[in-house]
Every structure is written in C-alpha cells, then in structure tokens.
Amino acid sequence: MKLDELIEYLDYKDLINFKNIDITGISYNSKTTKKGDIFVCLVGEHTDGHEFAQMAIENGANALLVERKVEGTKIPQVVVSSTRRKIADIADRFYSSPSKGINLIGITGTNGKTTVTHLIQKIFEENEQKCALIGTLGYKLSSNGEYRDAKHTTPQAPELQATLRMIKDVEKIDNVVMEVSSHALDQNRVGGCRFNGAVLTNLTQDHLDYHITMDNYFEAKALLFKGLKEGDFAVINADDAYAERFLSVVPEGVRKFTYGILKNDTKTQVAGAAATLPDVMAKDINFSLNGAEFTLAENGKEHKVNLHMNGMFSVYNVLGAVTASLAMGIDIEVALKALQNVKGVAGRFEAVVKKPLVIVDYAHTPDGLENVLKSAREITPTDGKLICLFGCGGDRDATKRPKMGAIAEKLADKIVITSDNPRSEDPQIIITDIIAGLKSVNTENVIVEPDRGTAIGLLKTIANNNDVVVIAGKGHEDYQILKDKTIHFDDREEARKVFEGSVI
Prior knowledge:
By secondary structure, the protein is of the alpha/beta class. The protein folds into three domains: 3-94, MurE/MurF, N-terminal domain (Udp-n-acetylmuramoylalanyl-d-glutamate--2,6- Diaminopimelate Ligase, Chain: A, domain 1, 3-Layer(aba) Sandwich); 98-340, UDP-N-acetylmuramoyl-L-alanine:D-glutamate ligase; 350-502, Alpha-Beta Complex (Protein-Tyrosine Phosphatase, Chain A). It is 31% helix and 22% strand. The chain contains 16 helices and 24 strands. Strands 6, 7, 8, 9, 10, 11, 12, 13, 14, 15 and 16 form an eleven-stranded mixed sheet that branches. A six-stranded mixed sheet has the order 17-18-22-19-20-21, with helices on both faces. The chain has a five-stranded mixed sheet with strand order 1-5-4-3-2. Helix 4 packs across helix 10 (312-327) and helix 10 (312-327) runs antiparallel to helix 11. The chain is globular, with a radius of gyration of 24 Å. The N and C termini lie far apart (53 Å).
C-alpha cells in the first residue's frame, strides 16, 4: 500500500520528508520492525517509542508515525496528535477494514467475558455456523481448535486487524466473538472495528490503578455501546448496578435486550439495577456437585436448563450468551442444547481434584472472589469446610486488596494468603494490605505463606476429603510474574501434584 493511501483519511497534523513510498507492514516494536514497515512511535506510561525510532529505521522502517519530529532522519514522518489512537486507524486502513465484512460481537465487563465468548462460539457451531473467538486465552477458529497466542485480552490494533483479515479471507469465517477490555477501549485498540452487537456481563471494581475512578472505568466500557449503529443489538445484565447507565448510552435505533435472575418470582433487587423485568430470566435455581439447574423464561415461554457448569455467575454467563443468540435470531432450543453440553472454560471454576474438591478459578477482583466463594459454598458438604487460597497482583489496584481479604474471611472457613504475580512489589507488603481487611488474624483460620507453591502444598495438611478448596486468582495462567523474572507456574499442576491420588 502506498503511504498516501494509508493516510488518506487520517487526521494528521503535519507531513515531514513526504515521499509516496510503499508500506508493507505496521510495527510498534523496534526490535521486530521489518523492511518496508511504518514504525509507530507509541507513547506509554513507561516508554516512548520516539526514542526507539532510529533502531526501527536501522531494522528497515521506511516511514514513521510520530507525535513530534524525530531528528536525524530523512524518511517520511506523519505527525499526529496521538499515535496510540491513530495506530488503529492506519491498521484498519492497511487491512482494508476486515470487520465490515464480519458479524463481530463484542463482550465486555469485569468478570465473565471469557466464558460468554466461549458459550456464544458453541451456540454458533450448534447452529451450523462457523465462529472464531478472540480473547484472554488467545484466539481460536473453532471450539475444538487450538488456542493461538495473544499478548493481551484484546490485541494491539495491527495484530487484531491482521487476525480479523485472516479469519475472513483465509479461514472463510463470517462470525467473530471477541472479549473487549476497558484498556482496549480506552486506548482505541479496537478503533476501526465495526461491532454488530455488544454484551455487558457486569461492572465491578477492577483496574482502578489505570482508570482511577469507577466513573472512568464505566466510561471506557461504555465506548463499546456508544459505537453501535442502527439495527445493531446491545445486551445488558439488568441486575448490574450500572445497568441503567449502560442502557442510557445505547444510541437510538440499536435494539436493546436485558437479562437477569428472579428470586421467588420477584426480580433480584440490586441498587441501581434496571427498573423493568429483563427480557430473559432465570428462576428456580439449584446447585449440586453436577452443576446448575434452573428455569429460563423468555417471550412468555419457559425452558428447563441443566448445566455442567456451576455457580450463580455461570447462570448469568449463560443468560448473557442466550440473550445475545436470541438477538441474532438463533433458535432458543439450539442455544440451550449447545450450552447444556459445555463442561466449562479452562481456569473458570475448574475442578482439578476430587478429594478434597479443589477448584481453580481466575477470580482476581472483589466481586469475582465473592461470586466464586458463594458458588463453592453451595456445594460444600455440611460436614466440610470451605478453604480459600488467594493473593493479589503487584503493581495493580491496591484498594481491592483489603476488600478481598474481608470477603475471603467472611465467606470461607479458612483462608491461605499468598502471592499472585507480585511483579515489582514486595509480596509481604501486598499480603499486609490484604490482612488489613481482616477482622481477626487467628492462625487456626488464617495462614500466610508468600510462596504460592509452598502455600498450595500446605493444603495437603489443611484440607480433609470432604472439604472444598478454592485456589483463586490465576485460573488458566501458567506463569508467575516476579520482580526480576517470569517463571512457569500453574495452579492446576501444583494442586494435582499435591493431591496426586485424587486427580480429576
């Protein structure tokens, strides 16, 4: 593609050393820049791409997208107000707007995004339609396919647009369901993407190290819904405290759908939740070791649902996926048949050991931990204990640490406090922040062990066969980020080693 074609619709401020050269790729990492690339000088919290422009040029870059002039080079420079926002525009242009030829569904929210994307992919396949998935675990082209690596929940714009183009042209897949994080929305990583529908799972405290306030967090998530067009659909969790605010930002002409849970035939009362009954509802919910059972009501009809998944959050995730499928015109019976066969998603309430029952979950927010522990309590035998092992990530929102400590103390019989990706922080300081939320540090019920592997090993002496253990925080992750290195570490592997005679 010629440079003038690439920037034809770009709102640039200046052109320096302009020559209408060929652009054969887009890069933002000087180490991986190739000959013919336009190198985008991204400005972030810790690095400034302008400082690496010379290295990119040495590696073959023949043009730069900059916020300020880079001295000492004669190659073309396109000056824009924000390279972080404009990289999406040139990526969309370079790959010829692939999302415009795809039915693209975006899933956003604090918790549940990964599961809902997987459920929707399953529904499409049950409906004899191909569907690709992009999210936390990478991307995959079918529910039975292998994950391919992705560096973020939502990839940076060039990788995302390249992936969409490959899905459309090479794999001939017309449906894509994608997790859309608040960071991706705020940083415009999904800029240029034409979403046909959007689903909100929930909005609870997370990422406040980045967004600072819940209002900012809401505004980032709301961008997905504000970008919808007439005829598109928006699916909102009616029981979420932010439901009305999300519904209020949906543009005119976009079809709105809501889902929620009824309790004793009266919709669950949540502060700020949508005032009217949702379009799709669950009632008469029961949990057992085998999963969840409930009645789903929609359009005056009722359907019995039996899930292999467990927990109230799983019911919500199923409701979100079903509502989205109904919005797309998929038959309810097809959707329910697909979901009743799903065993669950890796690292989401995943049972890895039978006796004691050890569950590994990705819960790393106050709301996520509360939901998982409440669900685990539902299946804890009356003569058994609920044990929770968890930590909090370093260099992240510190205000959630004491809240998670208080939740664990309130809902579990015993807690083991340990590390969870401490990054550059001292693990002991993170643990101290968690302990600040406890009412009591009774050593019988509260155990502190900073080394996560050792902490999981302690479960052998703490847990009896009829107990339920929740190992929270990392879920599917197979690494631990320390101050000076990243090591291989998988909660599921560690638990299976400790209870090797009772592995599921």
